[in-house]
TrEMBL record, chain A:
Organism placement in taxonomy: Eukaryota, Viridiplantae, Chlorophyta, Pyramimonadophyceae, Pyramimonadales
GO cellular component, one term: mitochondrion
Source organism, top-level taxon: Eukaryota
Spans through the membrane: none
GO biological process: negative regulation of oxidative phosphorylation; respiratory electron transport chain
InterPro entries according to UniProt: Complex1_LYR_ETFRF1_LYRM5, ETFRF1
Protein name: Uncharacterized protein
Family classification: Belongs to the complex I LYR family.
PANTHER family associated with the record: ELECTRON TRANSFER FLAVOPROTEIN REGULATORY FACTOR 1 (PTHR21024:SF0), GROWTH HORMONE-INDUCIBLE SOLUBLE PROTEIN-RELATED (PTHR21024)
UniProtKB/TrEMBL annotation, chain B:
Function: The electron transfer flavoprotein serves as a specific electron acceptor for several dehydrogenases, including five acyl-CoA dehydrogenases, glutaryl-CoA and sarcosine dehydrogenase. It transfers the electrons to the main mitochondrial respiratory chain via ETF-ubiquinone oxidoreductase (ETF dehydrogenase).
Keyword Acetylation among UniProt keywords: no
Keyword Nucleotide-binding found: no
UniProt keyword terms in alphabetical order: Electron transport, Mitochondrion, Transport
PANTHER family on file: ELECTRON TRANSFER FLAVOPROTEIN BETA-SUBUNIT (PTHR21294), ELECTRON TRANSFER FLAVOPROTEIN SUBUNIT BETA (PTHR21294:SF8)
Residues spanning the membrane: none
Biological process (GO), any one: carboxylic acid catabolic process
Places the protein is found: Mitochondrion matrix
MF GO annotations: electron transfer activity
Name of this chain's protein: Electron transfer flavoprotein subunit beta
CC per GO annotation: mitochondrial matrix
Organism lineage: Eukaryota, Viridiplantae, Chlorophyta, Pyramimonadophyceae, Pyramimonadales
Homology family: Belongs to the ETF beta-subunit/FixA family.
Amino acid sequence: MDPKVRQLYKKLIWVGRDYPSGISALREKMKAVFQKSAASEESFARGEFVYKELEALVYLHKYRSIRKRYDSGEPVKE
Amino acid sequence: MRILVAVKRVIDYAAKIRVKADGSGVETKSVKMSLNPFCEIAVEEAVRLKEAGVASEVVAVSIGPKQSQDTLRTAMAMGADRATLIETDGDVQPLAVAKLLAAVCKTEEPSMVLLGKQAIDGDNNQTAQMLSALMRWPQATFASEVVLENEGKTALVTREIDGGLETLKMSLPAVISADLRLNEPRYATLPNIMKAKKKPLAKLSPTELGVDIASKIKTLKVEPPSVREAGIKVASVDELCEKLKNEAKVI
């Protein structure tokens, strides 16, 4: 196996632990995509893209939940 | 300039909270734990000040059980240089936490102490204020912007208050607590967590610091909020009106 594949999978699993609906469903999906895709430059680029999207999603979900719980007001503008 | 950041290990924001059957507290066994989101913001701010060249060192401190090491590793993965864990068992009240942090402040001599405004488990919002009183340092709570002036001798802190913004100017050392909109914390990536394992982590105990952490407050009972009762479906408008009149008595 290309070590880059393993690295990408590890990275995705790491960020997936904080995925709002849990990692199990995400892992199944990821496994299927990994088995289907060839280790090409294009796949790696897409993997990186998905990783970044996941990171943003995890952050946004956390921010929104905390905001809902702790401050419902609009951000104050100067 | 050294910045001290206090972090807390709490039940993850997304985890479902269950109350223990005996009502003595909240179930923490086999529940996902993570770094308190507000502490995350405080760590991020300290790291940004370091990256801007204002601060030279960021030290993360946590008070809690052995597993709080993971929380400190996360803080170090985000960019803290080293960490100190003060190992305790069970619940530690905010006053005891403030006293422990004050003891750490005396040895570390930081120019600034950054904390989250509150932890999402106890929601106390007391530690920063108590620490500032114990150290007799100025305090700025709910900070939404921190700017250092005069080569790091004074700080301009903007805080969100009802209906506007308040800007405070204070001399350092000071205690600053972070609000939600101070910054967007970075993600502790896997490679950085691995690198953080090499960073130094010191362990201390409350007795070494000479602080009595015995709780002055006794928790009598913890109860979950009452469950909302299920609604019913009505077949016709007449039935709805009748129920609103006779059962709900609203019309």
